Amino acid sequence: KAGVTQTPRYLIKTRGQQVTLSCSPISGHRSVSWYQQTPGQGLQFLFEYFSETQRNKGNFPGRFSGRQFSNSRSEMNVSTLELGDSALYLCASSHGALREGSPLHFGNGTRLTVT
Amino acid sequence: AQKVTQAQTEISVVEKEDVTLDCVYETRDTTYYLFWYKQPPSGELVFLIRRNSFDEQNEISGRYSWNFQKSTSSFNFTITASQVVDSAVYFCALSEATGNQFYFGTGTSLTVIP
What we know:
The complex is a heterodimer. By secondary structure, chain A is mainly beta. Chain A has strands at about 5, 10-15, 20-25, 30-40, 40-50, 55, 65-70, 75-80, 85-95, 105, 110-115. In chain A, β5 (about 40-50) and β6 (about 55) form a beta hairpin. The termini of chain A are far apart. Helix content of chain B is about 0%, strand content about 50%. The interface of A and B includes residues 45, 56, 90 and 109 of A.
């Protein structure tokens, strides 16, 4: 089975721009969740999508949004980029929802640099 | 308050030594799940183990073992006879049956010196 695929691997953007990150989950997995990893804040939950519905969102501003398609692929969008958005963005998929305790399987991440 | 606390930021051990990584969690749920993940220098988080709140049996997998104690809200991870390939950042994590989030600890960076 193919693992979780995230594209692109690296992105460089300037402040004020917007960016879209993509995640293809493991086949058969219905939950996709996103995380931001920074040296200062560690790994923080962004949101979870399950069957195309956003289940919950972490403590992030409205500039961070996402969606999930019928094939479970997910995209994350960040608008009006700020320097502090520079981070490794990780996508994870799981067979069941987070509340079911399904183990997460992570992609390699997208390294976003905002200049 | 932190849901998951990993008090050890960095640990260095010499190869073949045993090492224990501590994890303390906080939850009011009766049903919850605890996890350990490994993040090697390549960056990808690798799932190691999941325990649910109703199963306090300790688990051993090769050189890895986990000690789950509800009485102290701890879920510690021991690597026996450490190897250089064990060098990575290890994260403890929690999800709750009534919640829709996934909480990670701040991670423990383990360096195994040859």
